[in-house]
Amino acid sequence: MKLSLSNLRYTAESDGVQLNPEARILAVAGDPGGAAALAPVLAALQKGRRVRVEARPYRQAQNVWRKWGLECEALDETCSSHRISQLLEDLQPSLLLCGTSINGVDLEKSFIDAARGFGVPSMGLLDFWSNYTPRFSDHRGNLTVLPDLIGVMDSQAREQMIAEGFPAAKLCVTGQPAFDCLENQRREFSAARRETLRASLGVETHDHLVVFVSQPLAAMYGPNSSCAQNHPGYNEHKVLQLVVSALEKISEETAAKITLAVRPHPRERAEDFLGLASPRIQIRLAREQSAHELVLSADLVAGMSSALLVEACYLGCVTLSLQPGLQTSDVLPTNVLGVTRAVYRSDEVLPAIRDVMLSPMTRQAMQKGLASFQTDGRATERVLDRVFELMGQPVAAIQS
């Protein structure tokens, strides 16, 4: 699916100043979250042709950018420091714009380090409220791989990063560009489209559809809480089984027909869910559908701490964050705001799901809170402003 750029209007000049047609921006990302945050920015730049964009994705970022119809050339994730330096020398970029991956490869760090050596300004764009220090630190945990500027989602993220030792002068609140489109999608999603998507999953009009948003936590942190110091205390397999058991119990109690649609993370494979079955409820793997349309079609969205849960809230979806046994701080900002309902104990999962699924009063209260949870849709514009400031060019003009 190629994403639409119809809501973006981009001007090639500002204040009558002629721009340098040879200016280049080198964009690098690996993780899907960082790629999604950068995609609207790169789309606006490529559409406006104000500068030349050299997009270099690796890993899952390649699929994200190609779904946006972006012109890009994939990097080999084994790309050496020498090759990175050679690429910078060949392209002579005016700016490095990058994601902030945590994937064990972290090529963005190597590009930031090389850009510093070439005197090329750099900007990193944060996409989520976690792992701030590991995104910009060396193997000793020291903040030695800092770009000239870091765009962050909100003041909460900025304050948390300052508390971890980030220089305040390097942090600017831009918002999350990947969220800019959500308000329009929320308004435009039709009842007919909802019914069509539900029917494709075998869900009839009066049946229940629950979407589980998965994350590859076991792969990231190990199978149990003793594997890593920052292990959250649970993993996707444990939480998913709790959800299945809860829905089976609710189906038994009410005779309701329930479908559980499991939405894998882009890093997860279909094989990771082999053996997932239930004699009581229908379970479907929902990888191909649009993530936003999938959650918009659900009666309940459940997950752990994925960014898709935040997006689901912006889309007006009743959402549960299930983090049983959490032993670190809760990184999901919607839990702090009370927009999602957080569950921190295994024995509270069933009562919470039952309440949110079956109590009209509970659902109405949650939907009332969601009504005012909106993005202003201008994060892309703010990122572009900072990009062109770093390049010493006139500020971009982009309007929704």
CATH fold topology of the largest domain? Rossmann fold
Secondary-structure class: alpha/beta
Sheet with most strands: 6 strands, parallel
**Could you give the order of the helices and strands?**
EEHEHHEHEHEHEHHEHHEEHEHEHEHHHE
Ends apart, CA distance between termini:
21 Å
- Would you state the CATH class of the largest domain? Alpha Beta
Structural domain count: 2
| Count, helices | 16
Percent of residues in helices comes to: 25-40%
What proportion strand? 5-15%
Overall strand count: 14
Largest beta sheet: strand ordering: 3-2-4-5-6-7
* Principal-axes shape call: globular
The named CATH superfamily of the largest domain = Glycogen Phosphorylase B
Taking all Cα atoms into account, the compactness measure Rg is 22 Å
Write the CATH architecture name of the largest domain: 3-Layer(aba) Sandwich
